[in-house]
Design goal:
Blueprint (H helix, E strand, L loop, with lengths): L2 E5 L3 H12 L3 E5 L16 E2 L12 H9 L14 H12 L3 H26 L14 E5 L2 H10 L4 E4 H7 L12 E5 L3 E2 L2 H9 L1
Parallel strand pairs: 1-2
Antiparallel strand pairs: 3-7, 4-6, 5-6
C-alpha cells in the first residue's frame, strides 16, 4: 500500500486525505495545531459557490492594475526583481488578459465547480448536512454599477438576471438600498455551510 503525507488539517487537507483513503492509500495528516481547522478554515465564510467563477486574467485587468498600484490600500502590490521567472510569469499572465482566454478559463473553472459539487454530494452521503449547517440557500451577487452589472450579465452562463427592484423585493435586507442597486445575478444551486463543523465531522 502506498503512503501519502498530507500537510495541513484544514478543509483542503482533510478532504484530500479522505479522498486518498477512499482510493486505497495509507494517509498521514500533519498539522502544526493540535486540532483540525485551526487556521483559515476555522473562520471560513462557508460559501459553496460552484458557478460563481471569475478568472483573475481578463481584458480590463492590465489597465485596472496600473491604477491599483497607486492606491494606498489597493488590492495589488508589485515588487520588480531581477528574476527572469517573475517577468516570464507576468508576460504569460498578460497574454491571458483577453476576452477569448477569459472564456476558455471560465469554462474550465465551471468544470471544476461541477466536479466540486459532485464531490460535496458524495461527502454529504457520509456526513449528515445537519452536522455542519448545510443550507441550499442560493447566491445573489448584487451590483451598484450599471456598467459592471451589464458586463457580468453578458458573461453569465447560468442563473437568473434580476433588476435592482427585483433584488430588493426578493431579499428584504436589501430594501433600504434599493435605489443604489443596478441589478443582480442569482444562482439557485449555490449553498452555505459551517466549514469548521464540516472539518470536525470529517475528521471523526
Amino acid at each position: 500500500m502506498q503512503q501519502v503525507i498530507v500537510i495541513g488539517g484544514g478543509v483542503v487537507g482533510l478532504t484530500s486525505a479522505w479522498w486518498l483513503l477512499e482510493a486505497g492509500y495509507k494517509v498521514t495528516l500533519v498539522d502544526r495545531a493540535s486540532d483540525v481547522a485551526s487556521g483559515a478554515s476555522h473562520g471560513n465564510g462557508g460559501q459553496l459557490s460552484y458557478r460563481y467563477v471569475s478568472p483573475l486574467a481578463d481584458a480590463g485587468v492590465p489597465l485596472k492594475a496600473i491604477g491599483w498600484l497607486f492606491q494606498e490600500h489597493g488590492p495589488l502590490r508589485f515588487k520588480p526583481e531581477a528574476d527572469l521567472r517573475q517577468w516570464t510569469w507576468l508576460a504569460s499572465f498578460l497574454g491571458q488578459c483577453t476576452a477569448a482566454a477569459n472564456r476558455r478559463t471560465t469554462a474550465k473553472l465551471l468544470e471544476l465547480g461541477e466536479l466540486s459539487r459532485t464531490g460535496m454530494q458524495q461527502l454529504g452521503a457520509i456526513i449528515s448536512p445537519d452536522e455542519f449547517d448545510w443550507r441550499d440557500a442560493g447566491k445573489l451577487v448584487v451590483y451598484r454599477s450599471s456598467k459592471i452589472f451589464e458586463q457580468a450579465a453578458g458573461k453569465a452562463t447560468a442563473g437568473e438576471i434580476w433588476t435592482g427592484a427585483e433584488c430588493a423585493a426578493r431579499e428584504p435586507s436589501l430594501a433600504a438600498a434599493r435605489s443604489l442597486l443596478a441589478g443582480g445575478i442569482y444562482n439557485a444551486g449555490e449553498a452555505v455551510a459551517d466549514c469548521y463543523a464540516f472539518c470536525v465531522a470529517l475528521a471523526e
